[in-house]
Design goal:
The protein is α+β, with helices and mostly antiparallel strands. It has a single domain, classed as 2-Layer Sandwich (Alpha-Beta Plaits). A three-stranded antiparallel beta sheet has the order 1-3-2, with helices on one face. The protein is globular, with a radius of gyration of 16 Å.
Length: 88
Amino acid sequence: MALQTNKSFNSSIDHLRWATVKTTSLRWEAELMEQVLAAHEVPARIIDLGIESYMGQGSLAALQVHAEDEQFAIQLLSVINEATEASE
């Protein structure tokens, strides 16, 4: 019975794993991509990185999704990245 408890505990931990799909020095870009993912019902979060955001030099951020959604999110966001690069 203890083995089943450990197995179920490990399963719940797996649901908490996050994967970084994008890092950017523009927080608004991460927020926009987070909204795109939310529109496709992909849970996402933004993590502030480094001290730049506290020193007025930009706001380095990482966009993360659940590990099981990583490939879908990368494919979805790659379309946005390609469109952005084409317009520049």
